[in-house]
Protein 1
Amino acid sequence: MTTGVRRRMGVEERRQQLIGVALELFSRRSPDEVSIDEIASAAGISRPLVYHYFPGKLSLYEAALQRASDDLAGRFVVPEEGSLGSRLLQVMRRFFDFVDDHGPGFSALMRGGPAVGSSKTNALVDAVRQAAYVQMLSHMKIENPPARLELVIRSWISLVESTALIWLEGRRIPRGELETQLVHDFAALAAVSAAHDEEMSELLRRALQGEPGDGPFSDLAVRLIALASPPAS
Amino acid sequence: MTTGVRRRMGVEERRQQLIGVALELFSRRSPDEVSIDEIASAAGISRPLVYHYFPGKLSLYEAALQRASDDLAGRFVVPEEGSLGSRLLQVMRRFFDFVDDHGPGFSALMRGGPAVGSSKTNALVDAVRQAAYVQMLSHMKIENPPARLELVIRSWISLVESTALIWLEGRRIPRGELETQLVHDFAALAAVSAAHDEEMSELLRRALQGEPGDGPFSDLAVRLIALASPPAS
């Protein structure tokens, strides 16, 4: 519309710009350490003008977190083609890209610092977990999961979170290794559950039909399933 | 000192009584739903007298949480005898006893409700995780764990937490099954890590020497280790 560098932004455009600037700052350092003054300065506007768009730091934080949550939930959406193992590996790469980009903010949020833990932020975190869960079911082509499968998927998602948090502490293990390992962990947890339950064993067998023998998943999974299957009687 | 039913308690005795009463209430319902009036009534004293011992609900909650944390951390301490698998199974039973007794309070705390998430409560939760981690190392007779072993143990502890939280939602899976499964999960996660790393493979092999062939651990672990070992070259 205009070529001026300092052209006036519309209300929504300004809000979106502030959210972007805040997300960038909240991602790089713990949100507690980021001040409104800093956000104003990074956005090139005055402090009172920030308050014109957002009543306080918490509301700006929640808006930034909403954007990050939408982004993160989207990382679990990959094309439903190829083997389950290769899709999960793709998802893990996209997830670790996110964690890499938003490290300090991600840690602060998940560890529950003083600025977080509001019911709004908890709801956003839960929404991401739920989106990841729904995507997993979709990739496994399962609509009505039994309790044991729900447990395996949801507890694996929590394992993914905690692995990322521990990784962020010192990045002492190459992330690529963890990405593959988490895919294998899923296979392993599912196989352990299958070893305890016939229905899980059957479900897992079906979900893994069509896995290529050389995929990242079947590499471990095929042998784990053989292990988990009840002996032929 | 006195045989009267309503004898006067000393300050510390009264504090301990209030903590016990509060812990009981905070365990059975979400701490947000428990009022000081209720605690006073359950303790048989007046509301102002509660405030005489604790400045507010948060400080009473923190004191109750401190007691619960000490209790929970103690659940990971079992005699260092018998196989690793049988000890872990014993620990899981003691842990689920705790979860069973403190269900709603445990869920509220771990899910981060509005009344929680203070730096004090976070520190208590972290202290329990750390105590569990130290006990695991002690049972495995390992003093300077490499990063990969630390990751396996700590992420497994988080898996134990999330499994308990999911179980509490509807108790749809018998807890005994989950206790055994979590021991197997530890073996499985360690085995996956060993499949990625020679040092882990060696460590795990040593830690599992002396496991009886019919123990809850080696049942799965022996086969997983064989699987995780690099092919003889």
Note: Residues 15 and 78 of chain B are 30 Å apart (CA to CA).
Protein 2
Amino acid sequence: MQERAKATRRSLLEAAARLFAERGYAATSVNDISAGSGRTSGAVYFHYASKEGLAVAVVEDRFATWPQLAQRYADETVPPIERLVALSYDIARALVEDPVTRAGARLWTERATINAPLPHPFALWTAAATRLLAQARLAGQLRTQVRPACAARTLVCAFYGLCSFTEALDGAATVIDRLSDWWQLTLPSLRPPGHEDAGSPVPG
Amino acid sequence: MQERAKATRRSLLEAAARLFAERGYAATSVNDISAGSGRTSGAVYFHYASKEGLAVAVVEDRFATWPQLAQRYADETVPPIERLVALSYDIARALVEDPVTRAGARLWTERATINAPLPHPFALWTAAATRLLAQARLAGQLRTQVRPACAARTLVCAFYGLCSFTEALDGAATVIDRLSDWWQLTLPSLRPPGHEDAGSPVPG
């Protein structure tokens, strides 16, 4: 793709993300996106075919894929449970601060009103958390009762539910502190008896 | 109020709850509620003034108030953390099974689209959980690092987020099992060291 076409696609995607994150999908029109990006409506249809196409592109750009997390996930110099905790903060911060991630999360919540299948990251997160917990178990850093696959699924649901619901109830500014409180109520259950409070990776 | 008027109010409320729970607020009209209850649209306006009035009444009837939980909350023959866990199962079961509770929860989620302030139960739940955790602390049944008010707020957000998000992702039938998994990842963190697995109140 030519540089100019790439720049146009990007500016449409970012304008759409900003509007979807603020107003939601239904309240955002192709005209709003064209006005917000300084491009024509024709450019929206040329590059993304439809408002649905643009919604799928926004979700795929960040929320569903998280390419920026690969390096942290694979960093074997950090113990696996610490990596899991650090990943959760990376995600929570993006959900609070990054407009394209926020837009993806909001679009996924509104998926019933969007006439296109939207991808999501939860299966990927659960697989990653399962591997990290399995590594912790091999290293003797996991309570024996904790089964990695089952715990991973529950942690992903509780984590994402906590972030979404805390934001809805108390505002985005409270999410990171609430996440710290949650890890303090969860980590001792993951660690072997006698090591519950060992080397807390919770910042602050 | 006369018995006949009471019966009419109740049948309107239940028909509305069924429709709100299934289709959501925006997709349910006063005519649908009238048809679903076998009453006239005039009866809706006479008893509830508007669709908004009916939405508030549905939310207040169960979701925001939970009168059925008072007895279990106050049952001092049961240790406080066991009461907290039992209350969470009562709530989760109602959120899965009871149409009026489900309708209230869905309406609260859709509150941005409803032109009336909707009450919610979260401050009440947090206050109740704080008291139970404080009682557990007094009885020496709480890990010393756990601060009741802070933990209560986090547990309420994680619990409700978990239930909502598990249902959205994996369906209502998985909620109770996921809640058991969550308590197994949370209770050891609440209990004093050496008592993490004491007398698990998680059913099944």
Note: The interface with chain B takes residues 122, 143, 145-146, 150-151, 153-155, 157-158, 160-166, 169, 178, 181-182, 184-190, 193-194, 196-197 of chain A (CB under 8 Å).
